[in-house]
Amino acid sequence: MLIADKKDYRRGYKKHYQSYKRLNSDNSDANSRRLLLVYSVECGLKYMLLDKWNEETPKRIFDSSDDRKKDILKSHNLEKILKELGQQGNFKFPQLKTIHKDCVVSDTYHQLYRYCIRTHEKQEEKEKSIEETLKRVAYWIEERM
Asked: SS3 breakdown of the chain: % helix, strand, coil, rounded to 5?
C-alpha cells in the first residue's frame, strides 16, 4: 500500500470531484463519472479520518498496533469510514446485484464502476440513488474541509 498524507487525500478529493462534476454536466458515461465520485468521496473521508485522529500522515497508524484504525484507513467501505466519523446512518447506500449474481455494497462500488460490471436493469433507480448519496457525502466533506 502506498502512503498518502492529508494533502494527498485532499488533493485527490478535489481533483476527482471536479472531474466528476465536468463529466456529470456533459452527461458522460455513468460508470466513469461514478468511479471518480466514489474515489473522490473515499479520498475526502480518509482526509477527514486523519484530521480526526490528529495525524498528517498515516505512517504512525500503520506502524502502530492499532488494528482498528489500520483496517478503517485501508478500507474501501464508505459506511465503515462514515461510522468512524460519527455519521452512521446519515447516508444510506443501497445494495445492488450484478448480472453475475454478486452483491455490491459500498466497499465494492469502486469495482462495479471500474470494471463496468452490468447490474440488473431494474436497479437503475438504486444506482441513481447511490450517485445522489455520494454527492451528498461529497458536499458534506466540502463543508468541513
From this structure: 65, 5, 30
- What's the gap between Cα 63 and its chain centre? 24
The pLDDT tens digits of the residues spanning 22-79 come to 998 887 889 999 999 999 999 999 999 999 999 999 999 999 888 999 999 999 999 9
Separation of alpha carbons 21 and 82, rounded Å: 22
Regarding pTM above 0.85, the answer is yes
List Cα–Cα distances, 4 to 46, 74, 79, 127, 130, in angstroms: 10, 11, 21, 29, 26
Residue 41 and residue 138 in contact, taking contact as beta carbons nearer than 8 Å? yes
DSSP 98: B
Residue type at 109 in one-letter notation: Y
- Grid cell listed for 84: 468512524
